[in-house]
Amino acid sequence: MFGVDQVKALNDLEMLVYGYVMKYPEKVRYMRIRELASEAHVSTSTILRFCKKMGCGGYTEFKLQLKEHLEHRGQVRIKDDISEVIDFLQKTCSDAFENKLEMLAEVIFNADHVFLAGSGMSGIVAKYGARYFSSMGKFCLYIDEPHYPTESRFLEHSLVIVFSVSGESRDTIGHVTRFKEQGCIILSITNTENCTIAKLSDYNIPYYVTYMRLKDYDVTTQIPAISIVERLGKKLYQYTSKGPGPI
Q1: Per-residue CA distances from 149 to 145, 152, 167, 202 (Å)
Q2: Residue 183 sits in which domain range?
Q3: Does 125 share its domain with 148?
Q4: Would the pTM count as exceeding 0.90?
Q5: Span 153-170, pLDDT tens digits
């Protein structure tokens, strides 16, 4: 409900109001302005200035926004449905998908250097992928820091495997564009093939599951991305051990 810039704009007295509202939101929604002023040990004019900085025309509008925020927070639901994941795993059994993984495993094997990049939950998958591929005989590094420096002439002929659910993360798009400027090949693993990161990539693997958000957080399942990593890693082992052939 409160933005970072809004909170930074508060003075010391207004911070007292903010602190009280954060501690007792359910209580504040039913309080009159004088009651809140008494409890927070500030004047009613301080509360009105606080409301204005929060983007409200007055105390009544602020309480309405607070009420809507609390009611919306209580309506958050997370669907526990694995049918989409099962459907994706079934699709990966097709000859077309199998052939695509075979081709990409060879691309990974032939790359001079391999980096896996992502942010947030996708950054965790990138870290896991780098560890998994390294275990299969192809040394890889991961980048999960948005501002990690990636400008280097030594990146030419490198492969960058990018993980992003939405494919629209500004930080990850920044990494992709910088890597492309260095002559890197981009392989992206995203939820759809119509996102910006997929369009910037040389290769893309979409998996198509429902987006899920909990408040400000993306909690979309990462099972398809992890599955792709493990399938690619096992096919990669065919090249890093004794050459192409069954494991």
Answers
A1: 9, 9, 21, 22
A2: 83-240
A3: yes
A4: no
A5: 778 789 999 999 999 988
User: Tokens standing for 183?
Assistant: 């002559």
pLDDT at 21 over 60: yes
Q: 185 and 67: one domain?
A: no
Nearest to 116 by CA among 206, 167, 179, 166: 179
**Separation CA 134–CA 114 (nearest Å):** 10
In the predicted model, is pLDDT for residue 247 greater than 50?
no
153 compared with 88, residue with greater pLDDT: 88
Asked whether residue 147 falls in the same domain as residue 60, the answer is no
> CA 205, CA 161: separation in Å to the nearest integer?
11
Query: Domains in the chain: how many in total?
Result: 2
**Which pLDDT tens digit goes with each residue over 214-244?**
777 888 899 999 999 999 999 999 999 875 5
Nearest residue to 92 (alpha-carbon basis) of 173, 16, 206: 206
What is the token pair recorded at 247? 């494991």
Pairing of strands 185-190, 203-206: parallel
- The total of other beta-carbon atoms located within 10 Å of residue 126's CB is 28
Half-sphere exposure (CA, 13 Å, Cβ side) for 177? 9
